[in-house]
Write a structure and sequence with these properties.
With 281 residues, the chain is of the alpha+beta class. The protein contains nine helices and nine strands. The strands form three sheets. A five-stranded antiparallel sheet has the order 1-3-7-6-2, with helices on both faces. Strands 4-5 form a two-stranded antiparallel sheet. It has a two-stranded antiparallel sheet with strand order 8-9.
Length: 281
C-alpha cells in the first residue's frame, strides 16, 4: 500500500525524532545485553537511509552525496532537516526559497499487508530478513517507477513563453523504516521522504511536479509494495514460527480487542433481534 502526503516546514522533525529515539533505544539495549532483539522489541524505527533512483552518479555529484550515501548509507538527520526545511543540499546548493505554507517535500509511505507484519513479528531471524528484504526491494522498484513516470519539474520555454515538463535525471529521498503502528501493533512500513528541491541537469535544485507524483502514485497504489511480499511470504512461512518476544504480546492484545468487539457486536445483534420480535408481536 502506498499513500502520499505533503510536508510543510518543520515536518521532518517528527521523522528525525523517531530516528533519534530508536538510536537511543538501540544503544541502551546493547548496553544492557539485549542486542538487536531488544532493539526490535522496544524501538519502532531504524536509522534513516538514503535512497537514490535514476542516474544515481549524476544525482550524487550535483548534490554532494558520496560513496556510502549512494549505496543506501545512513542519513545525517541535520542534513535531512536542512534539505527539507531550507532547500539546501549537502554540497550547499540552495534551491528557490519556499513560500509561506509551501510544500517542502512529500511523505511516500509504503506499508506491507498486516498479515506480513504479523508473520515477521512472530517468526525467526531468517524469515524476518526475507520479508524485510522483500519490502526494501519493492520500495526500490516503486521509486524507480515513480522517477520514470512522475520525476518531472516545470521549466520555462523561451520559444513558446509557456512552461514545459522536464524529466529529472534522478531523485533523492530518505527512507525512515518503522516497525510498529502508533498503537504498538506490528506494522512494517517505510516513510520515504522526498525533498521538494531536487537536482536538475544544470545543477539547480527545483520543485517536483506534484500532480504527476500524486497521479502516478495513485496508479501505483499497493501493487509494488505487495508484489515482493506476496512472493516471499511463502519462503518465510516455511520457517518455523516462534510465539515469543514482543510480537506475541502485540498479537495477543489485538486478538483480545477483536474478541471483545465480536462479543459486543453479538450482544447488540441479539438485542436488536429480540426487539424486532417484540415489535412484530
Amino acid at each position: 500500500m502506498l499513500t502520499i502526503s505533503r510536508l510543510t516546514r518543520w515536518s521532518i522533525g517528527y521523522y528525525n525524532d523517531t530516528a533519534h529515539a530508536a538510536r537511543q533505544s538501540a544503544t541502551d539495549g546493547a548496553a544492557a545485553g539485549g542486542g538487536l532483539g531488544e532493539y526490535y522489541c522496544e524501538a519502532d524505527t531504524r536509522a534513516p537511509t538514503w535512497l537514490l533512483v535514476g542516474d544515481t552518479a549524476a544525482v550524487a555529484a550535483r548534490t554532494g552525496l558520496h560513496g556510502a550515501a549512494v549505496a543506501g548509507g545512513v542519513v545525517d538527520t541535520a542534513v535531512a532537516a536542512a534539505w527539507l526545511d531550507d532547500g539546501v543540499a549537502p554540497n550547499g546548493v540552495r534551491g528557490r526559497a519556499f513560500s509561506t505554507g509551501g510544500v517542502h517535500g512529500f511523505d511516500l509511505t509504503f506499508a506491507v499487508p498486516k498479515s506480513v507484519s504479523l508473520v515477521r513479528a512472530l517468526t525467526d531471524r531468517v524469515a524476518e530478513k526475507v520479508l524485510a528484504t522483500a519490502h526494501e526491494k519493492a520500495i526500490a522498484e516503486a521509486m524507480a517507477y515513480l522517477h520514470a513516470h512522475a520525476g518531472y519539474t516545470w521549466v520555462h520555454n523561451p520559444v513558446t513563453g509557456m512552461k514545459d515538463l522536464q524529466r529529472l535525471t534522478g531523485l533523492v529521498a530518505m527512507a525512515y523504516q518503522h516497525e510498529t503502528s502508533r498503537c504498538g501493533d506490528p506494522h512494517l512500513h517505510t516513510h520515504v521522504i522526498v525533498p521538494n528541491r531536487q537536482p536538475r541537469a544544470d545543477g539547480a535544485l527545483v520543485a517536483l511536479d506534484s500532480k504527476s507524483l500524486r497521479r502516478r502514485g495513485g496508479a501505483l497504489g499497493g501493487s509494488g509494495a505487495r508484489g515482493h511480499g506476496d512472493r516471499d511470504v511463502a519462503v518465510a512461512g516455511a520457517t518455523p514460527v516462534r510465539a515469543g518476544g514482543c510480537g506475541q504480546d502485540a498479537l495477543a492484545a489485538r486478538a483480545a480487542r477483536r474478541g471483545r468487539a465480536r462479543r459486543q457486536g453479538g450482544d447488540r445483534r441479539g438485542a436488536n433481534r429480540q426487539g424486532g420480535r417484540s415489535g412484530l408481536a
